[in-house]
Design goal:
Rossmann fold; alpha/beta; 3 domains; Membrane-bound Lytic Murein Transglycosylase D, Chain A; seven-stranded mixed beta sheet; about 575 residues
Length: about 575
């Protein structure tokens, strides 16, 4: 037994295997740090947290220079082993650090027994061995392609989107390049590094070059947009502090949380990542039509970067436009800054609060429900000239104001041929089951009432034409419940139509690039960056803009933020949205 114990440490250093050693009565794997080693990748693959690692190696300072010996406690367990060519009973016992007697007893063997290739052996309390070939490899080439020189990157065209990354302990350049869909060579060239070695705390500029051209947004003739009767359209927009005919700088704030990003992504992290991917394709499309400039992403969801820190550093002083964050509190800070600097601030948040009212440099993408209802009323007055319009009155106080807005606008734009019928629940049911020539409207945001409205409509003798609100599409009771096959029209500045040809083409490019399906946030990222990027730079037609999902045409109250009036008539049918729907289809 003494001889066996002395032989184990040497025997376990067999070819391809990480050696195991004994210390204070415990067995450990002894891994030697080599070129390209990443402690984060290593620990995640083998499920070892840094606290445990420090406990096994109290003398290490966690810098892990080449040649460092790292001990990881080896686990014992019961498992089966298939005999391969060259195996002996003694060799197997050494490999798994078990006595020969244990191997004999567990498998009914004797000294005279022979092993055949493929024999199944029971290993009791054996050490689970690591193979070098199974360990994560992160070694990247130290050569730099001559095509990717720092001068090429510094020439700065729009296809170069720059994001900063702070190197964490254990990260390699290869890992970072894969994360940002670029290459180690490009990072070396852009940051003028002498090799591919990076150190913790180093701040890298990451230029992301897109090589596959997505389809450009097709040009669609402008249509007259609606302006409520109580609002006088403003003169053509004056672009704030722009560099006409030159290049522009646009900042995009996203809560990517790149220092803690874990796949598969969920919720806000997925929204931000998809938005980022769509924005990158927009940058490529802008480049394809001759725009020049820079789009820089600020990861305010990371530990090392925040809106306060960015504003304090005045990094945004020479930017032309800022696409705001998905957080109201942080958005207010950026909106204040942009108003002082006369920069365009683009907010993706719905229903901006009163703090934004007197900020003409703020552009609201998601139009208020009140304006959506006003546009719907004008459309009803226009297309229902030979039909009755039945408005469902829910009797709920919160809906009453919206119903009054609809009635006022309908009367303003209607003619003597238009007839508006106000209907409570009983009247609505009666009309749905009659042969009245009518279309039916509800502007309620009360889920219970809307579901009742939908149920009554589906139970009618003939399928009625229904008009509603965009908000209904977001309710899972409508969008994902097969028991509620809703079919209704609505007015919106965004419509997620996967059947439109240009969206299908975009989807193919998106899947080819990122290996994932598109989402609303991906289309939104494309439309916002392409729409505002081209407008600020004056390298495409500007506004009105009709994109993959989002339509934009801005008109604001005097001395107030700019509201999006780029409405389109959409239809929700068979759990899908249809863009530019025709009423008589």
């Amino acid at each position: 037994m003494i001889l066996w114990a002395l032989l184990v440490p040497c025997g376990l250093k067999s070819q391809g295997m990480v050696p195991v050693v004994q210390s204070n009565g415990e067995w450990y794997h002894e891994y030697t740090v080599s070129e390209g080693f990443s402690i984060f990748n290593f620990s995640s693959v083998y499920r070892i947290n840094l606290d445990s690692l420090k406990g096994y190696n109290p003398s290490l300072n966690m810098d892990f220079p080449l040649g460092t010996k790292i001990k990881i406690k080896a686990q014992r367990s019961d498992f089966n082993y298939s005999v391969v060519q060259g195996d002996t009973k003694f060799g197997i016992s050494k490999r798994f650090a078990i006595p020969l007697d244990s191997l004999y007893i567990a498998n009914g063997l004797t000294e005279a027994s022979t092993l055949k290739i493929g024999d199944k052996l029971n290993i009791k309390k054996g050490l689970v061995r690591w193979n070098y070939e199974d360990l994560p490899s992160n070694t990247s080439s130290s050569s730099v392609e001559t095509a990717f020189t720092s001068d090429n990157f510094r020439s700065f065209e729009l296809k170069d989107s720059v994001i900063t990354h702070t190197v964490k302990t254990g990260e390699t350049l290869g890992e970072i390049s894969k994360r940002y869909l670029t290459s180690s060579e490009r990072l070396v060239a852009y940051n003028r590094l002498k090799s591919t070695k990076v150190k913790p705390g180093m701040v890298l500029k990451v230029p992301i070059i897109l090589e596959v051209k997505p389809p450009l947004v097709k040009e669609i003739p402008s249509k007259t947009t609606f302006s409520p009767p109580d609002v006088q359209p403003k003169p053509p927009l004056v672009q704030p502090n722009t560099k006409i005919g030159d290049s522009f700088k646009m900042a995009v704030f996203l809560p990517l949380g790149e220092d803690s990003l874990e796949f598969p992504l969920q919720n806000l992290a997925k929204y931000a990542y998809d938005f980022y991917c769509g924005a990158m394709l927009a940058i490529d499309s802008l480049s394809a039509i001759g725009c020049k400039g820079q789009v820089q992403f600020f990861d305010y969801g990371s530990k090392d970067e925040s809106v306060d820190r960015i504003l304090a550093s005045d990094k945004l002083s020479d930017f032309d436009a800022v696409i705001g964050p998905l957080d109201l509190k942080e958005g207010l800070k950026l909106s204040d800054y942009c108003e002082r600097k006369q920069m365009a601030y683009i907010s993706p948040l719905p229903n901006l609060p009163k703090e934004f009212i007197h900020r003409p440099n703020t552009y609201q993408l998601v139009t208020e429900t009140e304006k959506q209802i006003a546009f719907l009323a004008t459309e009803m007055a226009r297309i229902a000239v030979d039909k009755n319009v039945v408005l469902f009155q829910t009797g709920i106080a919160a809906d009453s104001a919206q119903e009054r807005k609809f009635v006022e606008t309908f009367k303003q734009y209607g003619t003597s041929k238009n007839r508006l019928i106000m209907a409570n629940s009983a009247t609505l049911k009666a009309l749905l089951n009659s042969e009245v020539n009518a279309v039916f409207v509800s502007v309620s945001t009360n889920k219970k009432k809307v579901l009742e409205f939908n149920e009554w409509a589906r139970g009618a003798k003939t399928i009625p034409v229904i008009f509603g609100l965009r908000e209904w599409v977001d309710w899972k009771e409508f969008s994902s419940n097969i028991k509620n096959p809703s079919d209704f029209y609505y007015a919106s500045t965004s419509c997620y139509d996967l059947q439109e040809l240009v969206v299908k083409n975009f989807h193919k490019q998106y899947r080819s690039r990122y290996k994932i399906d598109i989402s609303k946030s991906a289309l939104l990222g494309f439309d916002i960056v392409f729409g505002f990027g081209g407008w600020v730079n004056q390298c495409h037609s500007g506004f009105p803009y009709k994109g993959l999902m989002l339509s934009m045409d801005f008109k604001g109250y005097p001395a107030s933020y700019q509201s999006n009036y780029g409405f389109q008539l959409c239809r929700f049918r068979n759990f899908k949205q249809e863009k530019d729907a025709q009423f008589n289809e």
